[in-house]
Amino acid sequence: MNFQWYPGHMTKAKRQMQEDIKLIDLVIELVDARIPLSSRNPDIDELGRNKFRLILMNKADLADKKVTELWSAFFREKGYFVVSLDARSRNGMKSITDIIMEACKEKIERDRKRGIKNRPIRAMVVGIPNVGKSTFINSYAGKACAKTGNKPGVTKGKQWIRLNKNVELLDTPGILWPKFEDQSVGLRLAMIGSIRDEILNTDELAIELLAFLKENYPGIVQERYGVEEAQELPEILCGIAENRKCITKGGEADYSKAAALLIDEFRSGKLGKITLEKP
Ligand code: G4P
Hints:
Blueprint lengths: L6 H15 L4 E7 L10 H5 L4 E7 L6 H13 L3 E4 L8 H11 L1 H9 L7 E7 L5 H9 L4 E4 L9 E4 L4 E4 L3 E2 L7 H10 L9 H15 L3 H6 L7 H11 L11 H13 L12
Parallel strand pairs: 1-2, 1-4, 2-3, 4-7, 4-8
Antiparallel strand pairs: 5-6, 6-7
Guanosine-5',3'-tetraphosphate binds next to helix 6.
């Protein structure tokens, strides 16, 4: 499968981020909890050198809880602060502030020793497209936020969202591009819907997904679609087509329709809480 690539956008976004990162103390990096590694761009480690780091494993509502815990431990071991969340929900946003303070306590202490009081922590949100950056900013900032920055006479300033007396957030997130190190990274990104479907081969993707499910979450497909899993993958897909009445005009099983349905049900969590990669 071939995945489209946009070097022009990438270069511009990266340059913008290099500028923005100079202004902040803390990088809040969003990853997708279903593919915590494939949804990262490791360039952020270089870009965010010397910054405090927090990883938010977002869409945790769709991910396998046990595996999310393994990933949390994995990232913590590497020195990141980690929180798993559903960015659509405002519950738990208070604890984000607590963890931001915790992640930046060295800076707070340094300021205190220098006699600097009430200097808020400045943070920015980064991540690949569709991981939930805007959703998170909206939930976290809520309605009560005041925009700061952009002083009169300064036309091209940065907009900061004052979250509370301790934290300010850059209002535009930094966009990272996924890193297609190998085919499997591209496949996982495609499975969660991070690559435009028009450029994908849905039949092939569904077969890959079925193979993964059969191996890692045995019984799920059988239970939902009433098909015997101990068959070849294309036959399972045909079984799904029959179960869901995906039939062509000629009266045959509509393989492609079933493939699209399977992928759609996986993405929306109807197949259950599934994580596609383990640490
Ligand atoms: P971005 O700024 O990083 O590009 O992502 P954005 O916030 O736009 O979120 C992308 C989609 O993901 C949105 O769905 C949003 O509702 C959904 N989303 C964000 N956080 C979570 C989460 O924690 N759990 C779940 N289940 N969904 C989340 P959308 O606008 O409906 O787009 P789509 O679903 O039609 O692609």
